[in-house]
Backbone:
């Protein structure tokens, strides 16, 4: 049921609205029967990755300088925690980011689980379905101030929440204002047709291949080029039973759109398929070889640092039609509680409280304040102090992520799925196979190996 | 009080209860609703302000059970889970000035307990109107985000009204004087288990009463609950899903009582409460599984409505009738159906006892129809190649256009046809048949028939059946009866007729759910009707109900009926066709009176006059309760032939009153049929006793729609002030028709 205002226009009005009490206090004092953590649990072991600098922050006796890393933000977050729980000793077990899943599984087998772990979005399905994580719904009722697509998407399984999303990102279009202007275009288009027409105009103005999208052997090819437009069309790549659904009408339409850009209109170069790495891709925009490029929110800081900030604008990824929804992929790291036996309630509650503390709006506000390029997973942060001090690019990205950010597809083996999608895409764009054949093969390859 | 706001239609305010929790109050001149927002959403208090009647004063029932993991391939695997309540996400009030409606919407997350899922949301709305004394309720289950799927195995939402206070051992507010009645049928033959109840007392509603059942143990599209003075109609309306209004009694131990020393929910049996409105699964309805997932996102139940009234159960029927008329369920404009003569009563059902009818005996029957004054020749089975084929048996009966032409020219009759959906052949196009789980055609083999059940949700069946019917229409047929369309129900239903051997369709090739749902089956059937109507808007279509082919226990009577793209014009008269006289004397067909109090959708019924008496009692009963009448079974020379010819002449002269007129039910034995624009009416009185009576009844004109103060004319009719008196000498077991007009 939609709101009346949106269905009947000015004859209806919203008289009054109200909400459940929210905020840190309400989070734990809910109707879910939560008790505040007991002071008896006095050591908390957390597995994190070095990138987030928690161990360094814990060791720092003074406020660190802003150095472009998480250090200063982590220090503030931990300081706040210590104020609340001076009796608790924190221990951080730092594991390289690509070993966290294996670490969680091995620890479970050895009975040496940490109290809290950090696992990235792609690995949540494997661990939650495998029984390595515990549902955390019971520890809060304050679930509505999370990006629901992330929380209820890949962070959930079987209707339960298994991960607390922390900071996130998004993918969107960048463009060279000068090249657009030279072609007589003031505002970027918002639909596929309008975008193609603008690209053709820019091509006619002298930019040989004005657009670039990921089509190479990169995780960004499926995650950046394919997923968002697929979602805009109402499609998906994993069904409710965990099987890949790649040979769909919606995916074929996405493929056809890129074929139009690359092979029919000559707007994008076929060389995109063989680009060696992200650096080469990023350089296309930085060197003004293309007028527009789809890329991650994280490249903005580098573009700005290299002096391109004034000439580069940004816009939301064009949609198939005006009435199609916005969509952008938002990746994230999250905090989880390992599934354990023999752990008393107080210890579990302390662990949950720590995870909720780090992912709280207040802590996310600290991250936003002390490191660039990080977007919150809690929409309320967008109206907090740090966000209000950010530049236009950050606010654009944060708004896009909050409005339209969606999590990774809940595939049991994301790597295999993405490889299959990339292969199908490349075979189609290079004319080796029809979209249907390429996607059927990709779908079968995945399902035969993973979904059974 | 912390917040107040008074809009033009309703006011809303929040306050703190004595215990400190937040309470929301939503009200206008007619209704006041109070909702606890803490610790969970609880619309626990509802008062009708005009009468002062408190309709709810106990915890709202939010019962939601998830399907067990045993039955699920995906979704929640944690075992059966039952909701404990709703935790508030937000609430809002919206006003629709165009409709004059103000709606309070509560959004809450379902609490399934410590380990239960947390991604199921309920949107619960209540609407009150500026100029109409009604209260509406809507409920939607939502799975707003994420990829998981939940099937709701069982659910029950509903207000609770305390009727009996267990602690005081006393009825509350004399609610023992209230009676609950189903609308439109209080008691009728369609129920496989008849509890011999026209209505249900408070004692009847006590759970686990001595009868061993929790009455009423049946479904109905609406109910009245009244004490003869104050009453409330509880209805459910849904054109997308088959749903019914549910009312029942239950023991309920208030939370306060549960918390008292030595008083557990087991020890204290609890108050007796009336549970009503909301939504619930019952007797196979809805036929569609209640599932929310990433594709559907929302499952919305139909609108429940409370309509207050003054008076007894009849008034409850009337206000529900007004509610239905607002939704377009009215007599078709200019409705003038031909009086049918059904050949079956004289010629027999030859499909079961060959030889089949031949032309000479058919023309002889047409001659009888003409002599009786009928307007159409109704061909029951068998006129087609085989029953269900819907292909005119030209070899036996000659070309259809010739048959139609001769009927018209020689007898002044049009042609009406009975249709079977299921077919006596299992060798038609394989794509039209219903398939079992093993993929085999589901055989129609009930001892009388050997053939195949068709799948009405199959596009192939719809295309082929439509083409056949359009060919018949092209040749001049002007009426179709859609019969033999039974569909399986998903569970055993003790309160209603059972369908032996009828299974759903499991074909994966038909494009429907597997198995096909009741709603898909019904929609497929209606689609064929609509295609006929699209091409032949004047074609008169009678629809046996889509599930039990005539008993109408599984579908609300408004379901599928609509004006935008009409499917059917008439309902079947509930099978009172075989011995209509005894059906009347036994009281069974009195249900037709109840139908007419609420419904304007015409009934079609043909009756076997062979069993009528010389006073044409049955003839007039069915003429007065079925807007489209069919007759048959008599021959010239029969003892009661002449009296029925006379009755037919009177009926034909007054027919617009019976077909189109506004029905007035003064009581079950006195009916009125009013043509307001023509300023005339026909009243029919019935004497069901074995003694002659001097009939004299006086009725108030108030509420009848008849103009007070007008000068009424008619034999046996007199008017004084605002009262109408009818007088007649009536033989035993007879009917009397009064013709009335006014200036």
Residues:
């Amino acid at each position: 049921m939609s709101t009346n205002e949106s269905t009947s226009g000015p004859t209806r009005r919203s008289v009054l609205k109200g909400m459940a009490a929210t905020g840190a206090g309400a989070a734990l004092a809910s109707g879910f029967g939560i008790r505040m953590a007991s002071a008896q649990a006095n050591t908390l072991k957390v597995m994190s990755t070095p990138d987030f600098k928690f161990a360094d922050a814990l060791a720092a006796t003074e406020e660190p300088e802003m150095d472009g890393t998480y250090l200063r933000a982590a220090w503030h977050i931990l300081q706040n925690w210590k104020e609340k729980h001076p009796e608790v000793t924190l221990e951080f077990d730092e594991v390289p980011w690509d070993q966290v899943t294996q670490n969680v599984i091995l620890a479970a087998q050895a009975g040496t689980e940490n109290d809290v772990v950090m696992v990235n979005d792609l690995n949540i399905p494997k661990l939650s379905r495998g029984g390595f994580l515990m549902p955390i719904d019971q520890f809060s009722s304050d679930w509505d101030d999370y990006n629901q697509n992330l929380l209820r998407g890949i962070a959930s399984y079987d209707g339960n929440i298994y991960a607390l999303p922390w900071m996130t990102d998004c993918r969107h279009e960048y463009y060279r204002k000068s090249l657009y202007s030279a072609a007589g275009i003031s505002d970027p288009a918002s639909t596929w047709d309008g975008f193609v027409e603008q690209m053709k105009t820019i091509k006619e103005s002298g930019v040989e291949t004005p657009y670039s999208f990921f089509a190479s052997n990169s995780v960004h090819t499926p995650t950046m080029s394919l997923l968002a437009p697929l979602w805009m069309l109402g499609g998906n790549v994993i069904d409710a039973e965990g099987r890949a659904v790649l040979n769909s009408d919606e995916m074929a339409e996405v493929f056809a759109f890129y074929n139009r850009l690359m092979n029919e209109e000559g707007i994008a170069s076929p060389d995109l398929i063989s680009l060696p790495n992200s650096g080469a891709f990023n350089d296309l925009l930085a060197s003004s070889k293309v007028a527009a490029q789809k890329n991650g929110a994280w490249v903005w800081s580098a573009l700005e640092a290299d002096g391109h900030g004034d000439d580069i604008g940004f816009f939301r990824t064009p949609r198939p039609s005006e009435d199609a929804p916005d969509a952008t992929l938002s990746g994230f790291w999250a905090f989880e509680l390992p599934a354990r036996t023999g752990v008393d309630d107080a210890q579990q509650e302390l662990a949950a409280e720590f995870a909720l503390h780090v992912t709280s709006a207040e802590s996310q506000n600290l991250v936003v304040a002390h490191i660039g390029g990080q977007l919150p997973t809690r929409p309320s942060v967008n109206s907090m102090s740090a966000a209000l001090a950010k530049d236009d690019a950050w606010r654009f990205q944060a708004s896009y992520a909050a409005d339209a950010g969606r999590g990774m597809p809940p595939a049991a083996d994301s790597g295999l799925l993405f490889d299959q999608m990339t292969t199908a895409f490349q075979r189609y764009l290079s004319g080796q196979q029809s979209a249907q054949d390429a996607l059927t093969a990709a779908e079968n390859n995945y399902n035969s190996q993973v979904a059974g | 009080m912390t917040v107040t706001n008074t809009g033009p239609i309703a006011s809303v305010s929040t306050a703190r209860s004595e215990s400190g929790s937040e309470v929301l109050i939503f009200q206008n001149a007619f209704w006041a609703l109070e909702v606890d927002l803490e610790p969970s959403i609880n619309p626990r208090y509802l008062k009708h302000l005009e009468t002062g009647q408190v309709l709810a004063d106990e915890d709202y029932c939010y019962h939601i059970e998830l399907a067990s993991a045993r039955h699920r391939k995906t979704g929640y695997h944690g075992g059966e889970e039952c909701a404990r309540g709703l935790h508030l996400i937000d609430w809002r009030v919206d006003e629709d000035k165009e409709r004059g409606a103000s709606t309070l919407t509560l959004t809450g997350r379902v609490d399934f307990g410590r380990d239960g899922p947390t991604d199921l949301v309920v949107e619960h709305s209540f609407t009150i109107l500026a100029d109409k004394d009604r209260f509406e309720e809507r409920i939607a289950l939502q799975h707003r985000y994420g990829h998981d799927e939940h099937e709701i195995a069982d659910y029950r939402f509903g207000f609770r009204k305390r009727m009996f206070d267990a602690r005081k051992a006393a009825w509350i507010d004399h609610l023992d004087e209230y009676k609950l009645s189903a609308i439109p049928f209080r008691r009728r033959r369609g129920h496989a288990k008849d509890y011999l109840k026209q209505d249900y007392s408070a004692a009847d509603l006590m759970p686990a009463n001595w009868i061993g059942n929790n009455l009423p143990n049946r479904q109905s599209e609406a109910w009245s609950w009244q004490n003869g003075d104050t009453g409330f109609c509880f209805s459910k309306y849904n054109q997308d899903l088959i749903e019914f209004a549910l009312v029942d009694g239950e023991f309920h131990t208030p939370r306060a009582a549960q918390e008292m020393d030595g008083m557990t929910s087991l020890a204290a049996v609890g108050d007796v409460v009336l549970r009503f409105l909301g939504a619930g699964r019952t007797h196979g309805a809805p036929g569609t599984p209640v599932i929310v997932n990433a594709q559907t996102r929302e499952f919305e139940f139909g609108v429940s409505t409370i309509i207050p009234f003054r008076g007894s159960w009849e008034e409850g029927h009337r206000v529900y009738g007004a509610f239905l008329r607002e939704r377009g369920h009215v007599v078709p404009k200019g409705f003038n159906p031909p009086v049918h003569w059904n050949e079956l009563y004289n010629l027999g059902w030859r499909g079961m006892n060959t030889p089949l009818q031949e032309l000479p005996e058919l023309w002889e029957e047409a001659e009888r129809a003409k002599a009786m004054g009928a307007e159409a020749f109704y061909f029951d089975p068998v006129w087609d190649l085989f029953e269900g084929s819907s292909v005119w048996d030209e070899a036996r009966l000659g070309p259809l256009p010739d048959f139609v032409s001769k009927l018209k020219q020689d007898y002044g009759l049009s042609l009406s046809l009975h249709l079977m959906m299921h077919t006596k052949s299992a060798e038609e196009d394989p794509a039209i048949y219903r398939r079992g789980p093993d993929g085999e055609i589901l055989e129609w083999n009930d001892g009388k028939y050997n053939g195949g059940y068709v799948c009405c949700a199959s596009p192939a069946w719809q295309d082929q059946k439509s083409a056949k019917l359009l060919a018949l229409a092209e040749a001049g047929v002007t009426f179709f009866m859609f019969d033999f369309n039974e569909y399986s129900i998903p569970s055993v239903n003790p309160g209603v007729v059972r369908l032996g051997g009828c299974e759903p369709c499991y074909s994966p090739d038909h494009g429907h759910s597997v198995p096909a749902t009741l709603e898909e089956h019904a929609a497929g059937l209606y689609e064929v009707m609509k295609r006929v109507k699209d091409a032949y808007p004047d074609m008169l279509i009678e629809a046996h109900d889509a599930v039990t082919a005539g008993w109408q226990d599984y579908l609300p009577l408004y379901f599928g009926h609509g004006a935008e793209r009409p499917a059917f014009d008439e309902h079947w008269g509930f099978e009172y066709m075989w011995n209509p006289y005894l059906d009347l004397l036994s009281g069974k067909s009195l249900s037709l009176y109840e139908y007419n109090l609420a419904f304007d959708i015409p009934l079609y019924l043909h009756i076997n006059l062979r069993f009528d008496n010389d006073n044409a009692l049955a003839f007039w009963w069915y003429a007065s309760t079925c807007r489209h009448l069919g007759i048959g079974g008599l021959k010239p020379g029969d003892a009661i032939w002449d009296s029925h010819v006379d009755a037919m002449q009177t009926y034909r002269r007054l027919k617009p009153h019976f077909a189109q007129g506004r029905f007035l039910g003064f009581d079950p034995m006195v009916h009125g049929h009013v043509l307001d624009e023509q300023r005339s009416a026909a009243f029919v009185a019935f004497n069901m006793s074995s003694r002659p009576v001097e009939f004299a009844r006086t009725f108030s004109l108030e509420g009848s729609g008849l103009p007070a103060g007008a000068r009424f004319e008619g034999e046996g009719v007199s008017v004084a002030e605002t009262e109408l008196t009818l007088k007649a000498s009536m033989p035993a077991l007879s009917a009397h028709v009064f013709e009335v007009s006014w200036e």
